Each structure stands twice: as structure tokens, then as C-alpha cells.
Amino acid sequence: MKGEFLIADLLATPWALRREVMASHMQVLARWMERSGPAVSLSDAPDADRGNAFEARRRESTARVGSIGGGGIAVIPVVGTITQRAGMMTEWCGGTSTQQISAALAEALRDEAVGQILMEFDTPGGSVFGVAELGDEIHEAAKTKPVIGVANSLSASAGYWLMSQCSQAYVTPGGEVGSIGVWMAHEDWSKAMAESGVVTTMVSAGKFKVEGNPYEPLGEDARAFMQSRVDDYYGAFVKAVARGRGVGVQQVREGMGQGRVLGAEEALAQGMVDGVATLADVVRRMQKDARAAKADRPARSHRSALAAARLDLATL
């Protein structure tokens, strides 16, 4: 049952992830545990390989949107389940870590050749850990350089948390965004263990140290605490979306799907995105803006030179 308890532990983490996606991940992890056995490390894959996987996606995304290097556009893919660090979930279930995205964002901000940042989202969400902090980074980055987010074709839960912090947000015509919510789960294995002849006794120090464990039914105090954690993260999620989209908290709580994903047109009507457009459409728009900015720079420099000359003449 060691694999089952691993799954129970994962479920006890607050998730901003579509629930049905977690069910799929649990099946993958269960099969992996059966095949690998408990002695196999949960982080077998070398860190370098995890980083290379993200970089490969980044190069693939850049190549797919076309030759945009001259336009000064950096592409950052947010693909698969989001976790704070690259590890088992990113390797075996496919995904991206907030650390990887943060590093790519910082690199794009430092690069003087980059004038705009394109974040391509295709994610069902993920763990809440690291998401609020990354959302703040995206929000701050957008004050320095335009950060354009595109749901191609899904930006749900933690993914939408991040996308809502972009300067502008778009969804493809067949895409979906939303799933604004947080959840946790508790699995009670006490009956199954009793039937198999196993009785586990918890020995602990600290009043609430072992509350919510899978060896016994969930108590009311433990349930209330789990609900408080969910409520806290949900409150942070809602406030972030309200800030990013420039709307009131109540509009986010009472609209925007209330935990559901919305199709493109409904998401636009709810103010969750700035437009419905394909990735290619958004890229063309960004390239046009880049060309306009490039053409305007010499003109501004010329005007500055003339102003300086006039100032010099005035002082003679």
C-alpha cells in the first residue's frame, strides 16, 4: 500500500488544478509505483535532464511561432501540470515548474534584445506552492516589458492565476480558461487496512501533528483546518486575478466560472481575457508592435537631438 499512501499525501496538498487531471495523474503514479517498487527514488531523473526538457520546450515554442528573434520577442511555454520544482510530476506526468518559468522570465527581462515576452499556456493548473510568488513576478515584469499570455488551448486554475497577471491575455477560439479555485482531499484507508489485517497506531507529540492522516477517518477539527487552508489560498487566487484583470474581488468570486473553465467567447464576456485570437494572430500583432517601436526609436532620438540643439542655442 506504499504507493497508495504516496497518493494520499499528494492529495493532501492544496491544488489549483482541475480535479479530473489529478485523477489521471494518480493513475500514472500508481502504475509507476507498481512497476518500479518502493525502493525507486521519486526523483530519479537528473536535474540537468529536467532543465533540458524545459529548454527543449522553449526552443520548440520559439520555432513554432516563427522567426521572431529580430522582433525581440522571448517565448516562455507553460505546459502541463505546474509544480514549484522540477521532479517526479514534471517528468512522469509532464509539466513545468515555477522555478523554470521564473528563471526564463528573469532572463528575458535582462536581455536588452528582448522587447516583449510571450507566455504560451497549455496547462490544467497545478500545486499552489510557488504560484503566488511567480504571479507577482509576472505582474512586476509587465511594468518593464509587455508580457502577453495566450491560452493555447487551456489555461486553467494555477495556469490562469499566472496568465491573469500578464499585460494582456488571449485565448484561442477553441480554447478554455478559468477553473478559479483550490481543493484538497483526504483518503481514509483505515477500513481497507483493517480488512487486510493491518492496524496502525500513530505516536506523536504536538496536538495536531498527525491530524488528517490516512490511517483513520477525517475528524471535524482536521476538516475545518483543511478548509481554512483552501480558503486562504483561494482568497489569494481571487485577489491576484482581480488585480491582474483590473476588476473587483466580488466580480471574480461571483462570476468568471466560479471554479469552472469557460470557453473563449464566455471568458471574453466575463472579462477574463482581452481577446479571442490564435497564437499566430497574437504573434503577428506583437511583431507589428515591435516594428512600430523600432521605427519610432530613431524618430525619438532625432527629436531629442533637435531639442538639445535648441537648448544650446537658447543659452548662447
Commentary on this structure:
The strands form 3 sheets. Strands 2, 5, 7, 8, 9, 10 and 11 form a 7-stranded mixed beta sheet that branches. Strands 1-6 form a two-stranded antiparallel ribbon. Strands 3-4 form a two-stranded parallel sheet. It has one domain (2-282): Alpha-Beta Complex (2-enoyl-CoA Hydratase, Chain A, domain 1), CATH 3.90.226.10. The chain is elongated, with a radius of gyration of 24 Å. The longest helix has 36 residues, at 279-314. The protein starts with a helix and ends with a helix. β3, α4 and β4 form a beta-alpha-beta unit. The protein contains 12 helices and 11 strands. The chain has 316 residues and is α/β, with parallel strands linked by helices.
Which helices and strands occur, and which strands form pairs?
Elements: H1 2-11, E1 15-17, H2 19-36, H3 47-64, E2 73-79, E3 81-83, H4 88-92, E4 95-97, H5 98-110, E5 116-123, E6 125-127, H6 131-141, E7 147-156, H7 158-163, E8 168-171, E9 176-178, H8 190-195, H9 220-245, H10 249-254, E10 261-263, H11 264-269, E11 275-276, H12 279-314
Helix pairs in contact: 1-2, 5-6, 6-9
Give a brief description.
The protein is built from twelve helices and eleven strands. The chain is α/β, with parallel strands linked by helices.
Relevant terms:
single chain; 2-enoyl-CoA Hydratase, Chain A, domain 1; 7-stranded mixed beta sheet; alpha/beta; 316 residues
Name of the top-level CATH class: Alpha Beta
Please give the count of helices. Answer: 12
Q: What is the CATH topology classification name?
A: 2-enoyl-CoA Hydratase, Chain A, domain 1
Q: Could you say how many structural domains there are in total?
A: 1
Tell me the strand percentage band. Answer: 15-25%
Tell me the number of strands.
11
Could you tell me the radius of gyration in angstroms? 24 Å
In this structure, how is the largest beta sheet organized?
A: 7 strands, mixed
Unreliable residue stretches:
38-49
Level-2 CATH architecture? Alpha-Beta Complex
- N-to-C order of helices and strands: HEHHEEHEHEEHEHEEHHHEHEH
Mean pLDDT over the full residue set: 83
Structural class: alpha/beta
